[in-house]
Write a structure and sequence with these properties.
Number of helices: 15
Largest sheet: 5 strands, parallel
Structural class: alpha/beta
Order of helices and strands: HHHEEEHHHHHEHEEEHEHEHHEHH
Radius of gyration: 24 Å
Distance between the termini: 24 Å
Number of strands: 10
Number of domains: 2
Strand order of the largest sheet: 5-4-8-9-10
Shape: elongated
Amino acid sequence: MKRRTKAAVVLLIIMLMLIPTTPLYAANYSDVRVGFWYYDAVMTLSNLSVIDGFPDGSFKPDAPLTVGQFLKLVAVAMYPRDIPEVIDGEIYYDEEYSFPADHWASQFYYAALFKGMITRDEFPLEQIDAEITRYQMSIVLHNLQKNIFGIVNTPAEGLENYIMDYGRIPEKYLGYVCSAYASGLLQGDENQNFNGDQPLTRAQGATVLMRLIYPATRLPTNFWSDTQAVDNPKPVTDEWFSDAVFFGNSLVGGLMSFSGLETPDYIYKNGISVFQVSNYECFPYEGKNVTLMDALSKNSYKKILIELGVNELGYKPTQFYAEYTTMILDMKKLQPGATIYIQTILPVTEAKSNSGGSFSIDRIIAFNNELKKIAAEQNCVLVDTYSFFADQNGYLPASYSYDGIHLVPYCYELWVNFLKKTLI
């Protein structure tokens, strides 16, 4: 049943129309292919003329960046109009300052210096050709957020439990690293180590700049808090989902279209509610429309991951509780050997919550409380996706959604990564 439906294509078109888009990919590197984790960042920044490749047609994503190269990338991407001119071998920052242009990156070094991105002590000019470390990168990111955007982010408690090499981070870098994590700009390796003393690669540098330019591509900034403790020390792989099915509304369609997870089945319908899954013919199967529950009976599954509830917010919580419980009982009859995972209703943005109607955070919390009761009573696994996506005030960050409810494409990948680190 692993098919891509017309509905998914329509969803993609709608999303691309409603969210700010990045430039079309015109660059063509021999070592950058679709599916690579850095593909979007490299191709987008190439078409913005922020980065480029080598004469042999390669990008060399694993090659280290020097201090001068990274400062140039930051300057071109973030403050191109403030890069000082070079005239007759002299760098002119303004009428007061001039410096000898004795290095190709001197103008970017002095721009960073006067913008407050760096200090001479932390980044001596004599080391402009040295490989920049991830620790040094975090300094630039922190200062850029503070001095360009006027933002200083304080991470939620628990970050020390998320960064596995947190205890090895030198004190002089610790605040910078935590600030960059709290901005959604950084993450560690597959083992959640930051590896601050390692060189920053070209692929990593491009990814960080992409997150700076396009806030919607940034990482969630609350997944290490106490409410988001990761229970699974060894994340599951795509193969874990090979005997699973995602079941529910249009958000499940988003997971199918944008998460990159192709091993499970997806049974969903845009706008569907728990009141319709058993009696509303909407899911195409072998040329005929069947109900979502009928579609569920066509294969055998070991795991059922449900995402329902946002379209039910106009009902009473007691009605929702009763119908959802009935659905769970029916699922157990159809799939007696399956573990059922109940994913909580995602938050909406503050603007959507305050717009009137049923899409309020208070109602979502009330309905999620009903889901908690159902999970406990029916021996299902509760997956707190609400807390994963909620900001410190309980809302969905505005940059994560194009309409206050649905997610922008990148967030579906974040959703799956959260599941991989949470499910056992």
